[in-house]
Amino acid sequence: MGSRWQVEKKRDPYYKRAKNEDYRSRASYKLLQLNKKFKIIKKGNKVLDLGAAPGGWSQVALERVEEDGMILAVDLQRMKPFTEENFHSIRGDFTTPEIQEAISSKLEGKANAIISDASPSLTGIKNLDHLKSMDLFENVMDICYNHLAVNGNILIKFFQGEKAQELIKANKKKFRTFKTTKPASSRKKSSEMYLLGLGYKL
């Protein structure tokens, strides 16, 4: 199983592109594609990246905000820092009160965009993985409502399933645009989707 996955990874065109173009992860292309289409992150933005390791999304966000913006990356895993002075990171579980307090301190205000490509520890059991994904999604949304600026944008990964529609409906009125989307670089056999929220209404 492991060797087959390694072979598939090496054949993956986005894996090859990431290596050639010096991106930390093939996941960089998901954010590149969605940001090109929806303008989630703009120059000068303050961006919170939840579940950031190994840094593929933070890397793209740094390119988009340029020197006037700021990136705050949070992850349980140790993450190699970027050299840019406007990059900051916190190591820890963003669902805990301690790390959320640290986020507040580091942000020094509200984020213009909150992005999350985080995934729970998967079991391979579709229904269980979906429920774990939705629990993580709810935690990310709680952070969004505490740390997102008015008119801010969000992009959050989740796995398809029954509970997803309930959560979409519950949060839809909070944003000018709230919809599901999937970039071309997302693996076709994956059940992952992304929730896009534009124009937070507070």
Would you summarize the structure shown here?
The chain is α/β, with parallel strands linked by helices and 202 residues long.
Can you give a write-up of this model?
Its main location: cytoplasm. Its EC number is 2.1.1.166. It is found in: Cytoplasm. It catalyses: uridine(2552) in 23S rRNA + S-adenosyl-L-methionine = 2'-O-methyluridine(2552) in 23S rRNA + S-adenosyl-L-homocysteine + H(+). Specifically methylates the uridine in position 2552 of 23S rRNA at the 2'-O position of the ribose in the fully assembled 50S ribosomal subunit. The chain starts with a helix and ends with a strand. The protein has a 7-stranded mixed sheet with strand order 3-2-1-4-5-7-6, with helices on both faces. The chain is an alpha/beta fold and 202 residues long. The chain contains 7 helices and 7 strands, in the order αααβαββαβαβαββ. It is globular, with a radius of gyration of 16 Å. It has one domain: Rossmann fold, CATH 3.40.50.
Low-pLDDT stretches are: none
Q: Helix content range of the residues, please?
A: 40-55%
Overall shape: globular
CATH architecture: 3-Layer(aba) Sandwich
**Quantity of strands, as a count:** 7
Write down the CATH class. Alpha Beta
Q: Beta fraction of the residues? A: 15-25%
> Per CATH, what is the topology?
Rossmann fold
Q: Biggest β-sheet: count, sense, barrel?
A: 7 strands, mixed
N-to-C span = 46 Å
Strand order of the largest sheet: 3-2-1-4-5-7-6
- Average pLDDT works out at 90
Q: What's the number of helices? A: 7
| Tally of domains | 1
Question: Which structural class do the helices and strands define?
Answer: alpha/beta
Q: What is the assigned CATH homologous superfamily? A: Vaccinia Virus protein VP39
Topology as H/E string? HHHEHEEHEHEHEE
Question: Radius of gyration, rounded?
Answer: 16 Å
